[in-house]
Amino acid sequence: MGTILVVAEHLEGELKKVTLPTIGFAQKAAAINGDEVVGVVIGSGIAGVAGEMAKHGVSRVIAVDAPEYANYLAESWTPALSKLASDLDASIVCAAASTTGKDFLPRLAADLDAGMVSDVIDVYDDEDEGLSYKRPIWAGNLIAKVTSDSDVTVVSVRTTNFEAPAEGGAAAVENTSPGTGASPNTEFVAFQQVKSDRPALTDADAVVSGGRGLKAAESFGMLEELADKLGAAVGASRAAVDSGYAPNDWQVGQTGKIVAPNLYIAIAISGAIQHLAGMKGSKTIVAINKDPEAPIFQVADYGLVADAFQAVPELNSKL
Amino acid sequence: MKVLVTAKRVVDPDVKVKLDGSGNLDLSNVEYKLNPFDEYGVEEAVKLKEAGKADEVIVVSVGTSDSQKEIRTALAMGADRGILVEVDEDEDLDPLTIAKLINGVVQREEPQLILLGKLAVDAENNQVGQMLGALTGFGQGTFAYRLDIEDGYAIVGREVDGGTADVKVALPAIVTADLRLNEPRYASLPGIMKAKKKPLDVLTPDDLDVEVDAQVRVVGYELPPERAAGVIVADVDELIEKLRNEAKVIG
Ligand SMILES: Cc1cc2nc3c(=O)[nH]c(=O)nc-3n(C[C@H](O)[C@H](O)[C@H](O)COP(=O)(O)OP(=O)(O)OC[C@H]3O[C@@H](n4cnc5c(N)ncnc54)[C@H](O)[C@@H]3O)c2cc1C
Ligand SMILES: Nc1ncnc2c1ncn2[C@@H]1O[C@H](COP(=O)(O)O)[C@@H](O)[C@H]1O
After folding, report:
1. Does the beta-carbon distance from A106 to B141 stay under 8 Å?
2. Could you tell me which residues are beta bridge partners of residue A175?
3. Which fold, B2-220?
4. Inter-chain CB proximity B126 and A186 less than 8 Å
5. Tens digits of per-residue pLDDT, B61-83?
6. Which ligand 1 atom is at minimum distance from the Cα of A237?
7. Disulfide engineering: A52 pairs with which of A15, A251, A266, B226, CB 3.0-4.6 Å?
């Protein structure tokens, strides 16, 4: 039996939430190819993270715990994972399609001379090809069905499309050192974290996003007020970010964050396909826009044709 | 310093690609252009040249002979010469094959800096730069919103989940461009005229000793689920009422 390796993502000693639906993907793939789902945690001082991962649908966890992994670098993770993948006879190595996953997984795939499938939204048993994947292309206009012929396939998982496995049990944690060491070419310098008391965009139950129609950074104040009333995260269109109204980290869309909350409220956002690519999977979509022809209304469950500068304060006072 | 930039020919990102009757891509009547993220790469390379940090900017594209057009676009923006790695129209390419072909060019040209877009907006793989990292053994600075070249290093500011991250990559280095790295210029008319005379070499995979053999294959397409049409509410009160009692998404 082979293995499906799920590489954990973690920050400051905490397992990141995106890891759980990634395990959900692996379980779905394992139900097709019969392999064992194994967690992998790389870092320094990560016993807690490994212990946490062990409670979520994996049959064991391999911990690679050494000082040279204290700061994430694709260049140091790649040789370590390459070695694990061959030692453990992996059929799939996967991680969340986060900026971390997107950074190291392709490097790993090339190192393994393996095929890689990005942003997987489903895995299925194709009648001609066997285990195959579905992934959106062209800003979500189409879904491609993709298969890989290599012995091991590297997969980045669009976590909004998979369920987190139920919590329970405690799989064994094995410590190992692949002995591949630090990165020779690249040095980590700093991570500047955007701190916020609001939920992270990709984890939030509700998201309130603003677009260029808000015309100033100050106007995001009323969106933040609405977000706080709803326990929501705040997002933005690319145009709003480029205009300096909102930080880069808030961008939702093809090249920003992919979100799929229960409630997504788009305010003064026109609804370009690149924006829709990042939020179309939301359960309930609300659009507030003064232009009744704005394309965002075509995906909205509830549309309100109104001036945001009147509608949002009114919402805030009535909620 | 020699800089290599990549230029992919992609379907215009504003075109909605459709399927034909037999479920294949219907690419008749679509416009093509230079991948938007590659414009950021080309702009950055040209800026390095203008700043005296780069001596030569080479554009490389892997594709059919049609891709010469996108190479010319990059030349019109200010790159010095182009290389087309020409493949047949029906050749299946996956990102690893493309990375191997670009690596073939890297081995020939020995650039100190390779600038790519972070993503090609057609297939949206976000793979080629990082794969090239493994194939060359060079360090990588992906999703760059800032790039400084200093004393043999590329200092890269990266856009990452939850904030930004800085890395220091020894040259030769691979950098993939994110939005906000710069503002790509429009090719000027004199630029376009000059580009016509700039050298553009054509190589084949054989010239580069690379076997074209895609491991990842598309076996079919489907349409994404349509969202059912929604309703337009009259006012804020009705919106709140619907969210509370119909969608049940607010308390
Ligand atoms: C390669 C590439 C990648 C991209 N990636 C992304 C991405 O990840 N995310 C993204 O969002 N975009 C992305 N874009 C940009 C995208 O194409 C659009 O340009 C962008 O989404 C537009 O943002 P917007 O809706 O805020 O602005 P606009 O299109 O300018 O729309 C503003 C809207 O506000 C409305 N409005 C104005 N005033 C008011 C008011 N007082 N009250 C109510 N409504 C008002 C207007 O009617 C209009 O509909 C990308 C583009 C490219 C080429
Ligand atoms: N056929 C190609 N020719 C030249 N460059 C390419 C090609 N395909 C991808 N690239 C480069 O690799 C980057 C990432 O592409 P991808 O991994 O396909 O999303 C793009 O922005 C391009 O710069």
Report:
1. no
2. A63
3. Rossmann fold (3.40.50)
4. no
5. 999 999 999 999 999 999 999 99
6. 11
7. A15
